[in-house]
Amino acid sequence: MNLFSDIRVLVIDSLDGMVAEGALPAGLKFDNVTVEPPRDAAHGDMASNAAMVLAKPAGLKPRDIAENLAARLEADARVASVEVAGPGFLNLRLAQDVWRGVVTHVLAEGAEFGKSNTGAGHKVNVEFVSANPTGPLHVGHTRGAVFGDTLASLLSFTGHDVTREYYVNDAGAQVDVLARSAYERYREACGHAPEIAEGLYPGDYLVPVGQALKDKFGEALLDKGEADWLAEVREFATQEMMALIRDDLAAIGVTMDRFFSEKSLYGGDKIEAAIKALDDAGLIYEGVLEPPKGKLPDDWEPREQTLFRSSAHGDDVDRPVKKSDGSWTYFAPDIAYHYDKVTRGYDQLIDILGADHGGYVKRIKAVVSALSDGRVPLDIKLTQLVRLYKDGAPFKMSKRSGNFVTLRDVVDQVGADVTRFVMLTRKNDAPLDFDFDKVAEQSKDNPVFYVQYAHARVCSVLRRAEEASVPLSDSANLVDPAEFALARKLAEWPRLVEIAAREHEPHRIAFYLYDLAGEFHALWNKGNEFPALRFLQDDDPAASAAKIALPRAVAVVISAGLGILGVTPATEMR
RNA sequence: GCACCCGUAGCUCAGCUGGAUAGAGCGCUGCCCUCCGAAGGCAGAGGUCGCGCGUUCGAAUCGCGCCGGGUGCACCA
After folding, report:
1. Residues A288-298 pLDDT 10s
2. Residue closest to A434 by CA, chosen among A442, A426, A408
3. Which member of A82, A141, A206, A274 lies 3.0 to 4.6 Å from A336 by CB, making a disulfide possible if both were Cys?
4. Do A291 and A164 share a structural domain?
5. Phi, psi of A359 (to 5 degrees)
6. Domain limits at A282?
7. Chain centre to alpha carbon of residue A243
8. Sequence-ordered strand ranges (E) for A405-562
9. How far is CA A549 from the centre of its chain?
10. What does the pLDDT read at residue A163?
11. Angstrom distance (rounded) from CA A509 to CA A280
């Protein structure tokens, strides 16, 4: 149930009625008619722009349309009053029983409230994290992990068939570097001093891998040349790293449905098939790229290469798929991977990348557009930097020394719930400050706490209600403006979910929950001043039951919202 | 030089397929516990929505051009 779309249906029906009676010309499109919560509560519960958007095509004055429409809307039992305001807004006030009904409805629906079937029959693939299997996940990956996982949950909530997928870059030069780094740790385990050359991965996390190699191979690899051990060590170390990464993901509650190996694209004809598909579309040719203007690399030389005409699908320039020596570029397996996704029958692809990969967006979109004939939309979401603060000062990370803050560090210090919520307190494309001290704080400055506290307060009330043998009733008794405001906020939940899912913006859930908690805390405190507004009415179980329905409904929605975010709702916070 | 992202209150940021007098938190000022959890709440001050054109009944939102900040820019993955 979405109260806003319900009322919009009422508006559209009324407009149809006007058409039937000749008050409006036939053939009007009502697509642009909206029913929304007004920014200013003084404008009522809902506002519609119907009269304004229809005035021109209908050749009528907005206010004339509005007044006719208003009279029709007022005939509906749900509508208490309608006023025509400003240039032709319709400001609706709904009957008090509608808001009481919202509470009842929320309680009846429980965790189902706000779910929708807008995504029914839609297969969506969300690819995220996809970090190189060369070490543990760090904070930047954490943001992408939380964002992707939450978006996936949100899309499930709206009925989509969602696949969470991780693309494993297990075929490039970086896994050779991993293998060499692990080999040094292996030598170390065998009693030799390791030589961690410049360019190798220095992190301690490879020490146990070295030990494991020794356990497996004994000292058999020591005398061999690199050519003889590289493949085996690479395979082993990559497996170990993926195990590490899976554990990291599990630590913040992320479970992938599928890990797609880049290596699996080689050897068969996967890449060849993908390139052929492009070729069949006339998008592959041999050519020489122009040097970039204004920034000429020192070693520029014209080279004839196999190129993908990505510029035909929105990219700025064409992109090489083969190097001048005939081997594939890194881009070629990316093409094959997205081709694979397209052929797996998804209706929508979503890639979540770090902002430093912004330069690849157009070419990948070009690939999907070309290979799906424009049928499969690809949305690429970039997640901006996470800036760490500790004791009020920026926390420096140095990749070169292997001294970076890992996902594990963060989760160990502040917990998965807090980490997840905080990662969504900014829009994905805005930089995020992550302050270890602020985030651990239990005060209203900390949005996670603020929302959790609201939920815990409801649970506290319910515990007391049980002690006082207050029966639970789904019928709410709302009288005060603060109570109606809260019910109104609850009614926005399904609409908010719909928008967040459509825009692929899970942060909206976090912001909504913060607002909802704010309305709840306001009402709670009003009970200090006006005892009649307290949820528990002394020695009056029936009155208490009617008052408790509203906070119970709040808890239902907070719980559902936090569920999408992957955060546990706290029942007490002592 | 080109592309993408960002520019909203002193600070950090929201802002709904374009809607009315642009919001929140922090900070600042002043208040509220014989009272369900004050780990909370209420009120006040504070803004040329970077700038300029344009589209529109209506622009923070859409288009174009500037200015400022970030990121990325040939066979490296």
Report:
1. 998 877 767 77
2. A426
3. A274
4. yes
5. -70, -15
6. 123-168+258-383
7. 24
8. 432-435
9. 31
10. 98
11. 44
- Identity of residue A281: A
- Shared-domain flag, residues A308 and A245: no
Within A 30-59, residues with CB less than 7 Å from strand B: 31-34, 36-40, 42-44, 47, 49, 52-53, 55-56
The edge-to-edge listing of strands for the beta sheet with A284-288 is A284-288, A304-308, A319-320
Q: Which of A195, A224, A251 is the last residue of a domain?
A: A251
A356 touches strand B (CB under 7 A): yes
Q: In the predicted model, what is the mean pLDDT of residues A28-33?
A: 90
The whole-number pLDDT of residue A297 equals 75
pLDDT band at A397 (very low <50, low <70, confident <90, very high): low
Q: Would you state the pLDDT for residue A400?
A: 53
Q: If residue A463 lies in a helix (H) or strand (E), which one and from where to where? A: helix A447-467
Q: Is residue A532 part of a domain?
A: yes
Q: Is the CB of A110 less than 7 A from some atom of nucleic acid strand B? A: no
Does residue A457 reach within 7 angstroms of strand B, measured from its CB? yes
Average pLDDT for chain A: 92
Q: How many CB atoms lie within 10 A of CB A569?
A: 19
A319-320/A89-94 β-pairing? unpaired
Strand, helix or coil at A304? strand
Q: Which residue is nearest to nucleotide B58 (CA to C1')?
A: A87
pLDDT at A22 over 70: yes
In this predicted structure, what is the pLDDT of residue A522? 92
Q: Do residue A241 and residue A281 come from a single domain?
A: no
The pLDDT of residue A334 is 96
Q: Identify the residues numbered 190 to 219 in chain A whose C-beta atom is closer than 7 Å to any atom of strand B.
A: none
